[in-house]
Here is the input.
Amino acid sequence: MSTTGTDSTSDSDADAAAHEQSDETTNAEGGTITAGSRRLPAWFVRYRVPIGLLVLVLLLRPVVGLPFMLGIESVAPAILIMMLFVAAFNLLFGYTGLLSFGHAMFFGFGMYASAIAMSGHGAAPELPFFVGAVIGIAIAALVGYLLGRLTVGKGEIYFAFLTLAAAQAVFFISTRDPYGLTGGSNGISQGAQPTWIESFRGQLRITLIEWPESLLSTFGWLDDWYLLVGVVFLGAMLVLWQIVRSPFGRTLVAIRENEALARAMGVNTARYKVWAFTFSGGFSALAGVLMSVNNHGASQAWLSITTSGDTVLMAVLGGIHYFFGAIMGAFVWEFASGYLTDFGVLNLGIVSFDLSRELSHWQFLLGALFVVVVVVSPTDGLWGYLRSLATRLGKHVPVSNDE
Amino acid sequence: MSTLQFSRRTRELVSNTSSAWLAFGVVLVVALVAGFVARPELFVTQAVGGLVYGAILILITLGLSLILGLMGVVNFAHGALFMLGAYVSYSVVAVWGLPFWAALVIAPLLVGLVGVFIEATVLRRLYDAEPIVGLLATYGLTLMIEETILYYWGATPLGYAKPVILQNSVSLGVTRVSSFRLFMLGVATLVVIAVYLLITRTDFGLTVRAGVQDGEMTEFVGVNLPIRFTAMFFLGTAIAALAGVLQAAEYGMNSSMGQTFLILSFVVVVVGGVGSLFGSVVSGVVIGEATYLGPLVLVGIAEYTNIAAISVTGIRGLIPYLVMLFVLLVRPRGLFGEEGLLE
Here is the structure.
């Protein structure tokens, strides 16, 4: 793989510098960038992921609230949380190449730890919110590490089976409700919210600081729950992005592409896989913590195999080789879920079809779309398709994988 | 083999086994004896029940193991097809009014046709890709099939009456077993034997095995491999549907049976060793017996050692996973797994 950039790392950011040198460069992944009459500034290309994330956080809620979209703004925090969850999953699947069918258990660890700590459910003492959150993330990371140590060396299919079985075991334990901790199949709903959150007309509000009347109009908007979720989402995604850009992340990609070659080069592939699993579990638990606040508690449905499977679906649908693929997949899924279930009647002018019963089984359509994506191009997904469209339409968009 | 040779081989086996395994074997025997002594009649009942449950597991897993071992395809849709077989049998018996024996034939046939359709349209394109792509594609198909079932038959649990001839129970001396469960045991045995004979003694099985090992060469020799792969997928799907019909008649059906039994099938396949049909049979029996005898053994040990905490209530659901964990720790490829398959 050749590069004409100034860096020796196989990083597509190198081509940004090379942009200024020649009209046509080949980036590390072999795609060709032709600078047309308009050229994107190098800093924009280099930081397009953080810029894209910021734009996403700023625009998601207004766009989702548009009448021809979902029409309700209050689902926006949940969509951001799912995007974070799928991105954490994609760190393991898209970048390392390990398919985990049990990621719901990591999400559940964060969710339940936060809910248990806040409510003092069963045998647990009441703990502050951050302690509960940290405990949840720590448990998820620890389970990810231990499970990784056990399972990463055994091959992809075995890994998928074993994570599936592990998640089912966790689901089963949560149903058995040991020491009254998990609340069985009812989950935890009483008193599971932090004291600095209150519900106001269905929207969540942060009540950390009591603004005096004079400052309310200028600083009152800071009390938005969506804002907090957006900030946490942005921070976590930037950390994930940096992980992916770092030598660690690049090694993961090398392991995904050709593990035997990576080992021949001296990379301890098992260790990298285990740590990828650990990070992935930790970030999933962070998403779970946010969701437990968003949903006023922990429900057992989030631990089921359906959640794990939906995560796989969202990641593959979006495009596993792309950082934004996870985000797009989560958005498409959540949007379809909200939009199609409320669809109702399709009015074609002369005839109208009452599709509400059919579309309540919208998962069939997304399953079909998923099968088509897997058969046609499993690694590119919808985001990859959009990228290739954009390349053909505007020739200065750099084409590279893993961005 | 003469008696002298047999005892010599046994002695060789015992002397060659490591001491850790011998110790484990001794502990296992002691535990089983403890369980037996604690509740003798219950032990025998549970042992027989475990055998029957193991046979059911074997039948359910056989389709998955066949497709996995013989074609290298992870059929995630196995659970959904199992469920489809159950629901189709409900339509045949409860809606169309045909006898149960007709459902035993019609449901596997219809679901097998669905399997052929799946194989021809989706899976055939994925044989050259990595196994994980096949897993993903069949997962998407699972979603589609399960939603179709929900759409057509609804979400409420359904059931129908077993045929009158199989509704009572049979006495086996110390215990009584429902005759339908004995019927399931019989069907499972017949199917396992038939599949074994098909794979090892017929030309068809020989060519399929050759095709899995070296597809290109097999086709050069003049074997029509795509047809054979389709036929194998049909067989695996039909067996899954047959298991679904039996399960539906005995236990009824609900919208989550696909997932539950899919995971159990995966556990059985992993414990037995991916790619080994004999391994699936052995692990089915082992997991079945462990599920039924495990709680009893724990009760026995708890009474013997007076530590009440050992007999954990409700551990029965966790036992398959514990067995899998144990087997994978000591034999990472499963009991009879082959090297290099899906690794």
Remarks:
- DSSP finds 13 helices and two strands in chain B.
- The interface with chain A takes residues 74, 122, 125-126, 129-133, 135-137, 139-144, 147-148, 150-151, 259, 263, 266-267, 269-270, 274, 314, 317-318, 321, 324, 328-329, 332, 342-343 of chain B (CB under 8 Å).
- The mean pLDDT of chain B is 85.
